[in-house]
Amino acid sequence: PDAVTVSGLADLIHVRLDHLQRVITNMGMGELHHDYMLTPEDTTAIVLEFDINPIITEDKGKDVQPRDLPDDMSEFPLRPPVVTIMGHVDHGKTTLLDTLRKSSIVDSEAGGITQHIGAFAVTLPSGQRATFLDTPGHAAFSNMRSRGAHMTDLVVLVVSADDGVMPQTAEAIEHARSADVPIIVAINKCDKPGANPQKIREGLLKYGVQVEDMGGDVQVVEISALKGTGIELLVENIVLLAEVLDLRAPTDGPVEAAIIESQSEKGRGLSASLLIQNGSLSVGDIIVAGQSYCRIRSMTNDLGKAVKIAEPGTPVSATGWKDLPEAGQTAIQVESESLAKEIIENRIGKAKQAETLKQIQAINAKRLVSH
Ligand code: GTP
Ligand code: MG
């Protein structure tokens, strides 16, 4: 805004209107009505009077951070790998997941299009457990793909052999790269008459993905998610890569969990799907995520079954949130509800302060320009 009213400024800098008006009068600017439009010059002068320093912000409030883990994690137990399935729209990601867990999610999706991140605990044929995140391939859901890539240990990149390396294939490669996560390529729909897996291998080269049989070290498997062919080999590759990554996490100590998604549901209230990263989450625990907290009222696994405790590497849906947490944030356990409230109050205060400073800086910038 070019200018701000007296009451608008009072809101902006969090002082009472009558107090602001008194200060203005004392500055020799007369008695101003709350609707009076202040010029940017006046505003700056008044703000300076309040001694708001846009650079130094002191912080004495309580907060909570993820714990420091040692470089050498060997003292901790192994956890299931988190595998994110990514790729272009309709290339068969959800079908692959259905085949892996012998389910039929695709049939229940509106228009057969995935519109959220699904998290599933899968017991692989080898008996090992893994958590799969299914991401949407539609162009509009780039944020979800980015989030998926940042929560995962490895990415299975699904590319349809009857189509090719498409825009969201390339985008998925970028996400995996920026999250520094290894890729396994699954060339899908190899059952189709027009399938050309070699074309996919060559197409991937253009994006810097060099698969094994093209001289690189990225594993590639030809599959048909629909017919179930090649799935065993894909699973073997996933298990092998997970073993190499030696994925471990402490099962005790304060819980940390990634918010995969959050929603308001009829009958359940506010809920969030979480991916447990460290520690074991139990019903009754208190976790803080951003400006929201939760005393866990209930937890359900991906089959909708109630669970009392969730360990690292597993997804759960948790109810009991006071506000909807933001996807992508990290939830951290605290000892008490009162501490959770204190932390959130502090975070909200800090966010407000940052916002105020930004607005004051904008006003100042405007003033400089107008001179
Ligand atoms: P989005 O989530 O919208 O990005 O799609 P998706 O990648 O999850 O694709 P989905 O699994 O919904 O499959 C899209 C279509 O391809 C469906 O009609 C599937 O039956 C079909 N399909 C998937 N895998 C195969 C396969 O291996 N062979 C054949 N012939 N069809 C397949
Ligand atoms: Mg899908």
Automatic annotation (TrEMBL):
<protein>
    <recommendedName>
        <fullName>Translation initiation factor IF-2, chloroplastic</fullName>
    </recommendedName>
</protein>
<keyword id="KW-0342">GTP-binding</keyword>
<comment type="function">
    <text>One of the essential components for the initiation of protein synthesis. Protects formylmethionyl-tRNA from spontaneous hydrolysis and promotes its binding to the 30S ribosomal subunits. Also involved in the hydrolysis of GTP during the formation of the 70S ribosomal complex.</text>
</comment>
<dbReference type="GO" id="GO:0003743">
    <property type="term" value="F:translation initiation factor activity"/>
</dbReference>
<comment type="similarity">
    <text>Belongs to the TRAFAC class translation factor GTPase superfamily. Classic translation factor GTPase family. IF-2 subfamily.</text>
</comment>
<keyword id="KW-0809">Transit peptide</keyword>
<dbReference type="GO" id="GO:0005525">
    <property type="term" value="F:GTP binding"/>
</dbReference>
<keyword id="KW-0496">Mitochondrion</keyword>
<keyword id="KW-0547">Nucleotide-binding</keyword>
<dbReference type="GO" id="GO:0003924">
    <property type="term" value="F:GTPase activity"/>
</dbReference>
<keyword id="KW-0648">Protein biosynthesis</keyword>
<dbReference type="GO" id="GO:0005739">
    <property type="term" value="C:mitochondrion"/>
</dbReference>
<keyword id="KW-0396">Initiation factor</keyword>
<feature type="domain" description="Tr-type G">
    <location>
        <begin position="78"/>
        <end position="251"/>
    </location>
</feature>
